[in-house]
Amino acid sequence: MLTHAGYAACVEPFPLDPTRMALLVVDMQNDFVRVGAPQEVPDARITIPVIASLLDSFREAGRPVVYTRFTAGPRRTLLWTWSPECGPELRSCWPGERREYGDAEGTREGHAVIDELAPGDGDPVVDKYGYGGFHNSTLEAVLRAHDVSQVVVTGTVTQICVEETVREGFHRELEMVLVSDGVSSFDPELHAATLRNVAMKFGRVEPAERVREALAPAGAPHYTF
Fold first, then answer.
1. Dist CA 69 CA 51 (whole Å)
2. Does residue 70 contact residue 28 with C-beta atoms inside 8 Å?
3. What sections of 48-187 are H helices per DSSP?
4. Element spanning 175, H or E
5. Are the CB atoms for 224 and 209 separated by under 8 Å?
6. How far apart are CA 136 and CA 183, in angstroms?
7. Class of the CATH-defined domain 2-71+113-215
8. Which DSSP symbol is given to 34?
9. Structural domain spans, the chain
10. Which neighbouring-strand residues pair with 126?
11. Which of 55, 58, 72, 102 is most buried by its number of CB atoms within 10 A?
12. Residue 179 and residue 140: Cα distance in Å, rounded?
């Protein structure tokens, strides 16, 4: 039984292959990340430099970068029962809804990806009305169109939208790589349990540095955050 950072795995399930990789940034939106956000995940701010470094590495390597955005409103769905912030009082993650945050000047659209990780020209952005990135969305079609079969996953929340996306990708025969220091949660125990569970049954769990090493040409410098 091999272990990686405490996460059990029987064997290395598949090699990291940059020729088949895309980076997926899950729900790093103002209404989750910014100070005072309706669904604030404070630890998401810790992952910003890690995700930014992966964005740079993937773009330098010419590999695709794809974003998801958690989307709500205007009509009630079952999800509101567990995420009441998405209701009409706070309108969290409603497209076009703007608000002020404690760490930004002026107003921001809550639904938008944070400025620090903003999509570049041509980066696909997939809106979803549920937790998983693949459910009733175009995400699989986007990945297949870019000839991607290995997906490196970052973002928030680890045990909700991130985990659901990893599981959905696994069931679509995609090789899922969860970046251990590039995902975040409001619950440390569930965060740790999710990393262990993914490593046991659904994909690889690796630090960002390991992914950057796989992407970088031989002899290129590596950076640790």
1. 16
2. no
3. 48-60, 139-145, 163-171
4. strand 175-184
5. yes
6. 23
7. alpha beta
8. S
9. 2-71+113-215
10. 68
11. 72
12. 20
